[in-house]
Amino acid sequence: MKGRVLIVDDDTALAEMLGIVLRGEGYEPTLCADGDQALPMFREHKPDLVLLDLMLPGTDGIDVCRAIRAESGVPIVMLTAKTDTIDVVVGLESGADDYVVKPFKPKELVARIRARLRRSEEPAPELLEIGDLVIDVAGHSVRRDGAPIALTPLEFDLLVALARKPWQVFTREVLLEQVWGYRHAADTRLVNVHVQRLRSKVERDPERPEVVVTVRGVGYKAGPA
Amino acid sequence: MLRRARTQVRRGWRRSIALWRRSLKLRVVTTTTASSLLAILLLGNVLVTQVRDGLLDDRRQASLAEASTGLRTAQEAFDSADRSEPGVFDTLVPDLVRQLARGGGSEGTKDVVLLQGPDINSPEAPLGRSSSGADITALDTLRPQVQARSAQLWTYAAVQRDSGRRVPVIVVGAPVQIPGIGAYELYYIFPLDKEQDTLGLVRRALLVGALALVVLLGGIAWLVTRQVVTPVRMAARIAERLSAGRLEERMRVRGEDDLARLAASFNRMATSLQRQIRQLEDLSRVQRRFVSDVSHELRTPLTTVRMAADVLHEARAGFDPSVERSAEILQAQLDRFESLLADLLEISRYDAGAALLEAEPTDIASVARHVVEAMEPLADRRGSVLALVSPPEGAVAEVDPRRIERVLRNLVVNAIEHGEGRPVTVLVAADDGAVAVAVRDRGVGLAASDVTMVFNRFWRADPARARTTGGTGLGLSIAMEDAHLHGGWLQAWGEPGDGCQFRLTLPRRQGTELDGSPIPLEPADSARRRRPVVRAGAPYQRVASTEDVGA
Q1: Taking all residues of chain A, what is their mean pLDDT, rounded to a whole number?
Q2: Among candidates A85, A102, A107 on the partner chain, residue whose Cβ is nearest the Cβ of B300
Q3: Which of A47-56, B114-123, B368-377 has the lowest mean pLDDT?
Q4: What does the pLDDT read at residue B479?
Q5: Is pTM, for the whole model, over 0.90?
Q6: Residue A216 or B547, more confident
Q7: How close B484 comes to chain A (CA, Å)?
């Protein structure tokens, strides 16, 4: 089994089809048709990834996303029928790692899920420094002055990508490819939103970032160690 | 020099005409002033004439009365003179003249002249006398008549004063008999300088009054017009704002006069317009909302169907040939359905005004290169040669690269699709203000009447002709919206049998107005332009020759 996936979608036909496709890809899907049931089922099944439809009856998809994110860093991929800027940004800001716009091709979805679960391979022991932070890549932990900082796997990946090459300025496109696994140009708002989230956790003053520095007109780079 | 002055005068004249036509206030004030000036002049003239006549009448009557009295006095003096005394008249005449000139009721100086009649030839006859050396020339017109008619007569005349000033006078003359000697003539000369002074005073007063009155009337006209014009101008301003889309603008209604009524009905009109526009807007919003909702609602089932079809497609190797083919057709048509839905959503976003421009400095030449490279496989399949002509220094403009790439992709796909396997040329050019991309094919071409139709939604040149590459019919409409969003132009040129050219022109900086395109709309290698006819001053400029590269 490649991993457990919780599918939260009120459209049973779509949910079932998603289940068939994911099972065909070797994942172990669990279906949840009701937003109110999503959190109990999440706690019960402890999935490796959550596929979440943003438009849900009962609890809003955004709320479910926030609730799950509040107690876990598990990767969340949103399914959305809206590409309007505001909806996508709201979804990302409520904690989703990535999103797929309906109608999507099954391969596209599987690629997104695979990219988010890729980390399950055992990384080599490695210690990185960025700003005044110490990153233990294998132990999946970030510390400032010995105190641990909780990051989601995606935020961790983003930080590691920057920290591994502190001399390099990363464009948003390069980060999309390295962290999210996109092969071709995608939505650079993903990067913007997650850099903001990351900064809110690792910076002493998110208004004046020292760990993840913006290079105007180009992208981001790691701050001096 | 002269010519310049003349043009300046002409320009000034034209400007005044324009001002005259534009300003109601100016017109009203000018006509009021002019007409009141005319009326006052006429009235003043009448007044002055009346005053003059009145003054002169009084004076003439007094003069005539005094002259008659003087005549009687003289006649009595002559009659009662002691003729036995020699030379009695020689002393009597000067005394009498002096006495007459001093006496009488009328004020001021007057002259009395006693002259010998024409028949006097006696040596004893006393000489004529005049008081204070009066100017006798004033008598010239009256004298012959007095001599001829032997009666009291009068006339107006003028005398020269010592100061050189000519003064109007009344001259009254009558014959007087000196017994034993013959007929003399007694003349009174009454100066009218007092009357003239009075008349001058009246005239001056009238003139000053008239001028003041005209100025005052002009001012009043200005005030009155202002009262009328100000609300009218306000109405015009508000109407302009309304037409600019600020539908909530209203006029202020004050009082209950005609202007208030105008304002009130203007406001009613605006309200009714606003309501109707709102209704239309609501209707069209509902419609757009519907398209958008339908498209959204279709997405979830489409995703499910898509996935199901994909599963079938993956497994098609194990099916019957007919089922396998069905799975393929299902897959292909789902692709088409999906792009149609995507285009519908895109256009509904434009209709809802929700499309946002994320402009950044972009090299259009490199965007065009990407598109051409990506389209090469399609061109190969169709047997078309794709050529790109672009300036080596690039063509940078502030655009949304995603949208521009989509527009160019659309144009190139269209050109390949309709190019009948002949070469397709993509030409990029730039000037100071604009960047342009022209996509030229040499296919069946377009009728002139279709050139504007191609941008209509779901338009087809020939309804009977099937779509081959499965375009959605919305591509050019979306491209047009994309061009407009950038403040740019998307235009088509076509000639049946000579292919088409689509030209996208974009301003280099967002927010600037386009005033031309670096590429002519009609390609340089069109059949018409290849004919060796050169019109003088043709409005086209050849930027680059597509002939050398394209063929």
Answers
A1: 85
A2: A102
A3: B114-123
A4: 92
A5: no
A6: A216
A7: 20
Listed by start position, the domains of chain B span: 62-198, 259-351, 360-463+471-550
ipTM associated with this complex: 0.76
* pLDDT score recorded for residue B551: 33
Chain A: residue whose CA lies nearest to B295: A81
For testing the chain A interface, which of B296, B304, B366, B373 should be mutated: the one with the most A CBs within 10 Å? B304
- Smallest CA–CA distance, residue A186 to chain B, in Å, is 10
B306 vs A77, B299, B335, CA distance in Å? 19, 10, 9
- Residues B60 and A188: their CA atoms lie apart, in Å, by 112
**Residues in A touching B404 (Cβ below 8 Å):** none
List the CATH code of the domain at B360-463+471-550: 3.30.565.10
As a whole number of Å, the CA-based R_g of chain B is: 53
SS3 content of chain B, % helix, strand, coil (to 5): 55, 15, 30
**Phi/psi of residue B227, nearest 5 degrees:** -60, -35
Residue of A nearest to B342 (CA): A103
**Which has the minimum average pLDDT: A96-100, B47-51, B180-184, B370-374?**
B180-184
Instruction: Flag whether pLDDT at B469 surpasses 70.
Output: no
Q: Is B205 helix (H, G, I), strand (E, B) or coil?
A: helix
The CATH number of A4-120 is: 3.40.50.2300
| CB of A128 closer than 8 Å to CB of A222 | no
> Hunting for tokens 């030229």 — which residue is that?
B440
CB of B296 within 8 Å of a chain A CB? The answer is yes
Q: How far is A217 from chain B, CA to nearest CA, in Å?
A: 10
| Shortest distance, CA B345 to any CA of chain A (angstroms) | 10
Give the mean pLDDT of chain B. Answer: 83
* Span B259-351 CATH architecture: Orthogonal Bundle (1.10)
Q: Which CATH architecture has domain A127-222?
A: Orthogonal Bundle (1.10)
CB contact under 8 A, B356 and A85: yes
Average of pLDDT values for B306-322?
88
- CATH class as words, domain B62-198: alpha beta
